[in-house]
Design a protein that fits this description.
about 180 residues; alpha/beta; Double Stranded RNA Binding Domain; 2 domains; 3 helices; about 20% helix
């Protein structure tokens, strides 16, 4: 009998599915099944699914560590770095990082229902979504080599929108200018 284990591994911001299979030492060699019962179907599962190489398609020297925040904004930043094609490998280990991105928590300015209603009655309804803002600093050793502040009005998608703005500007203003 084969035991199949399915797990998800997060390596450098890249999710990989890992499937392992091993023989069950407690399984009996023969099964006693009644004539009406069918034998369980067996599926041949590979013992390991190949995963992409770490940093594949990225410059070897650029390894980025994103400092954790209480609102877990670093998760959005790591995803945005991959989505926007920023030429870095994101790591959870600060000791191997060549760059450190320090982000502040996202501050969300909520618009009350009353203020939204009043603005729609007396003015335009445009721009009444909740607004979010954050700032980041890119550190190389003890030096600040790049800094950016973002302010977006995207309602429920503030964190994702802010993270993607940071990634886009980091790629354009820091990495493309260094070439």
């Amino acid at each position: 009998m084969r035991i199949v284990t399915l797990g998800c591994v997060l390596v450098f911001g890249i999710a990989s599915v890992v499937i392992t299979a091993q023989e069950d030492p407690t399984a009996q060699a023969t099964q006693s099944a009644s004539p009406n019962e069918s034998a369980p179907a067996t599926v041949d599962v590979p013992s390991r699914v190949p995963t992409p190489a770490i940093g594949e398609g990225r410059p070897r020297g650029a390894v980025l560590y994103i400092t954790p925040t209480e609102d877990h904004f670093e998760t959005y930043l790591a995803a945005a770095m991959l989505k926007k094609g920023v030429p870095v490998a994101v790591t959870n280990n600060p000791e191997i990082a060549t760059l450190v991105l320090q982000a502040s928590e996202v501050e969300i300015q909520k618009q009350s229902t009353g203020s939204k209603f009043a603005r729609c009655i007396f003015a335009s309804c445009a721009g009444i979504e909740d607004r979010g803002s954050t700032s980041v600093q890119l550190m190389e050793g003890d030096l600040v080599v790049w800094s950016y502040s973002a302010n977006k009005g995207r309602g429920q998608k503030n964190k994702q929108s802010l993270a993607e703005a940071v990634a886009k500007h980091l790629k354009k203003e820091y990495f493309e200018r260094r070439r």
